[in-house]
């Protein structure tokens, strides 16, 4: 931590991504050099290699669930990231916009049917929360990240019926692609920041299905034992407890072992806050599990976290402490 | 079950999909009318409405993990599928092919570099298991389902560098799209069956990264209390125990409740075989959990399953038994 000059933080870019917003919530650009990178893998690589002091990656969205790419990197099946720990988390309210080029001649024609087509599975479809800004009849292509499509179903099925869908790597990449459109018929779902960066018009605001759409981001680093001095805002905020994450596998020959590991947390009265699993890739339908629980490995006055980790080491086939961090209100 | 004539089974199509293969493993076409449908939702709709007696849907792949669309339908947040239960499972070995049109003039030029580009995260990339059949230099577009792309990384990054990727709804849909290509430059990742159905050439066989790539499919129905007489092969096979699935939510104000529910299985010595979670969509970062465990609700001589379900009803906020089924070797 004694390196001269600014330290660096890498995050899933491009500029104006939601991960960029998350990074701005936690790190000050006065003190940190911001490095947008292309993939979540790149963030992990740069943190592990020591090119940067911290990284920010998406972990889960309140509508769509876990980001499996991040879980797979935390699983670290090939041992590429031995030093990486989770050192913090932050939440971003996700408000998607429809962005593109306005169609001037159609501007007067209203905003589409405003009605979703009833289907067998959804005979009385709910209305979308937002209305378009002007006509969308000129839109023939829609670009975005798969997660964003999943979060804007009502708007798309009401106002963009029959439009061709193109899945790309990020919402800000989608806005960039649409900025190169010469036909005026392409649109993207992205943040308002991305629209402004790429010179696009906002054709609809807050088009997400739910008004409580949030994404949780993890801050990763390689200095788990050092007090987290990166937290821009921590001085101003009250602590709201701690969280830790572990991954583990269980012996295939003893399927009861999963319950054994889970009972370690109960034995030490540690609340579980999330469970995820991914294929172990050692054999079909064996898993690596991820547990988050309340408690901090390095701030553990009654020894409950240490006790639980010790028990896990006895019953799991393999396990890894992935980090502990303070939560802030 | 007294309906005259053939009963029907719907499955995620189109014809020649991997789900079609799964359906053929369990149901006899002599006795059942096979109905391919467009989405997993359609399978659930037709089973719930009684249009068909059974449905077959993908549940998890040994490389890519869970199929979240199926989990979300089993979550049944809007109460559309009150009568649906899981009545069985079957596994399909997944062997992907690269299919398209051969390029005759390039046929002599060999099969690409055969070398993957090293990256920071993968400095010594492993070689793909399969080689192309002839040259792939003419391929400019590649269509497939996102899960299939995820299972063929090595082959794609070795032999199809820089090819444009198009994600579509199924591997057999991808083959169908490529069959309409007039440029000869499009290819799909699909099954060999789909290639033959759509009159395409096989440009590579078994191009998946792992030779133990399997998908598990669930058989759903609405007759959980009736003996499962649909099993084509059960007479010839030895039973290998039973499995059950439940979903549940826990009170938000009592985060220890998750451990309480999990300990119900341990208390009755029931082995957990899988855990999944999806957003509850009731509030951000609350979840609906899915547990599979060994045991059968209607074949429960020592009352352990009944005991555990009774305990779950006391500690979960809400819960649902989703089905029990026999496993066969």
UniProtKB/TrEMBL annotation, chains A, B:
Its EC number is 4.2.1.51. The keyword Amino-acid biosynthesis applies. Residues 246-324 form the ACT domain. SUPFAM superfamilies: ACT-like, Periplasmic binding protein-like II. Pfam families: PDT (PF00800). GO terms for cellular component: cytoplasm. Residues 105-132 are annotated as: Disordered. The keyword Amino-acid biosynthesis applies. Keywords: Amino-acid biosynthesis, Aromatic amino acid biosynthesis, Lyase, Phenylalanine biosynthesis. InterPro entries: ACT-like_dom_sf, ACT_dom, Chor_mutase/pphenate_deHydtase, Preph_deHydtase. GO terms for molecular function: prephenate dehydratase activity. GO terms for biological process: L-phenylalanine biosynthetic process. It catalyses: prephenate + H(+) = 3-phenylpyruvate + CO2 + H2O. Residues 8-222 form the Prephenate dehydratase domain. Pathway: Amino-acid biosynthesis; L-phenylalanine biosynthesis; phenylpyruvate from prephenate: step 1/1. This is prephenate dehydratase.
């Amino acid at each position: 931590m004694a390196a001269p000059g600014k330290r660096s933080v890498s995050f899933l870019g491009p500029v104006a991504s939601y991960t960029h917003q998350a990074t701005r919530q936690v790190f000050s650009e006065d003190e940190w050099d911001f490095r947008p990178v292309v993939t979540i893998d790149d963030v992990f690589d740069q943190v592990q290699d020591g090119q940067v002091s911290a990284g920010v990656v998406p972990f889960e969205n309140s509508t769509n669930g876990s980001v499996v790419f991040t879980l797979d990197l935390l699983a670290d099946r090939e041992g590429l990231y031995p030093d990486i720990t989770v050192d913090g988390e932050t939440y971003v309210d996700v408000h998607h916009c429809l962005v593109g080029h306005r169609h001037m001649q159609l501007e007067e024609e209203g905003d589409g049917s405003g009605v979703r087509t009833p289907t067998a599975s959804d005979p009385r479809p709910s209305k979308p929360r937002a209305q378009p800004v002007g006509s969308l009849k000129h839109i023939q292509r829609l670009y975005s990240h798969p997660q964003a499509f999943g979060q804007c179903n009502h708007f798309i099925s009401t106002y963009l019926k029959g439009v061709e869908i193109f899945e790309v790597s990020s919402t800000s990449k989608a806005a960039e692609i649409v900025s190169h459109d010469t036909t005026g018929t392409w649109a993207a779902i992205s943040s308002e920041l991305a629209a402004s960066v790429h010179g696009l018009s906002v054709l609809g605001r807050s088009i997400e299905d739910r008004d409580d759409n949030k994404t949780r981001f993890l801050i990763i680093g390689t200095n788990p034992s050092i007090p987290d001095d990166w937290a821009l805002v921590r001085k101003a905020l009250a602590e709201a407890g701690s969280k830790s994450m572990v991954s583990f596998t269980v012996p295939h020959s003893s399927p009861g072992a999963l319950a054994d590991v889970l009972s370690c947390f109960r034995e030490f009265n540690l609340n579980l806050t999330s469970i995820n699993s991914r294929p172990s890739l050692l054999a079909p339908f064996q898993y690596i599990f991820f547990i988050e629980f309340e408690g901090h490995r390095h701030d553990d006055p009654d020894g409950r976290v240490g006790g639980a980790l010790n028990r896990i080491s006895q019953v799991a086939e393999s396990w890894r402490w992935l980090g502990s961090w303070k939560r802030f209100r």
